[in-house]
Design brief:
This protein has 321 residues and is mostly helical. It is built from 19 helices and no strands.
């Protein structure tokens, strides 16, 4: 490999650690030196950097200015659109990709299934599933996980179970979490907890996202004291109570069923709070008749520089603020 090529790869490698403004400066230098748009590896790195910082228009402009586009470059743009919550653009980009003679692979299909899940488009999701079955010899685990999520978002639990069952022993923590979420989203919280129990028996390490899905299932069940205590103990025993998102979810869970004292204890123990933390705590107090305490917490929230979101503003006691 030439020194120039090595330098380009090194430059591409550091893009992920740069701020958006630094990426723009490096992009300008690459253009002046003539490295762009001929170096697809560097173009792809700039695309990822722009998409990660929310500059999808800049990513699209760079892509449009690149005369030679390979499948990885197309995949980068499709993924950027899907991750930026622009699913329609992801599907349109895929159509342009096919017209240009590039065939979607496992990575393309994974991103497109994410777009279909966001749109809850069963028609497009099934078309992608059929395409993948016909054209991709081996569907990797990312595609199968994306299929579980897509069918779950589209309310097709039969297909969810079929795809999930086809994974056999290859299931990852993402696979199990997708399955738990699919059950929760379709009004089957009891089944979600049964899946979680199977997951634990399979000795798969639970992560934050999985635990949030489990807490969501407990919340939907208006869980008993025993179940609420069990899931909180699981979170504590596995080091998740220091996680702000998990703590927020537990506050909401306890608050929904009237365990206000425990919700307050978790809130008071938090080292890092967000507006979601304050909102969950204030709602727990307000819903269960502790109006004065809710107003005290609300005043504390304002003093600490947090401003209420729309979910808190919907409560009559706070609507005037």
């Amino acid at each position: 490999m030439s020194a120039t090529a090595t330098g380009l790869r090194d430059a591409a490698a550091i893009l992920g650690a740069l701020s958006a403004s630094s990426a723009i400066e490096l992009h300008a230098h690459a253009l002046k030196l003539g490295f762009l748009p001929s170096c697809l590896h560097l173009c792809s790195s700039f695309l990822k950097s722009y998409a990660a910082s929310g500059r999808l228009a800049s990513a699209r402009q760079l892509f449009d200015e690149t005369p030679r586009r390979d499948i990885p470059l197309w995949n980068t743009l499709v993924s950027a659109c899907a991750r930026s919550r622009q699913p329609h653009h992801a599907l349109l980009t895929a159509s342009a990709m096919v017209r240009a003679g590039s065939r979607p692979n496992n990575l393309s299909v994974t991103s497109l299934l994410s777009a279909c899940a966001q749109l809850r488009s069963l028609v497009h999701g099934r078309e992608l599933h059929g395409y993948a079955m016909r054209n991709i010899p081996i569907l990797d685990l990312r595609v199968l996980n994306a299929l579980v999520s897509m069918y779950g978002r589209c309310g097709r639990l039969a297909e969810v179970n079929t795809v999930f069952g086809s994974m056999g022993d290859t299931k990852s923590v993402v696979s199990w979490t997708c399955m738990i979420n699919a059950c929760c989203e379709n009004g089957r919280p009891t089944e979600a907890l049964e899946v979680f129990n199977e997951m634990r028996l399979s000795v798969v390490k639970v992560d934050e996202v999985t635990l949030l899905a489990v807490i969501s299932a407990c919340t939907k069940l208006d869980c008993t004291s025993e179940l609420g205590e069990w899931v909180e103990k699981y979170a504590s025993d596995n080091g998740f109570l220091e996680n702000t998102r998990v703590a927020n979810a537990l506050i909401h869970m306890h608050g929904k069923v009237g365990r206000v004292k425990r919700a307050c204890e978790i809130f008071d123990s938090m080292s890092v709070r967000t507006v979601v933390s304050w909102t969950a705590m204030i709602q727990a107090l307000a819903v269960h008749g502790h109006g004065a305490a809710a107003l005290v917490r609300f005043t504390q929230m304002l003093r600490q520089g947090f401003w209420p979101d729309e979910s808190l503003a919907s409560y009559p006691d706070f609507a005037y603020l």
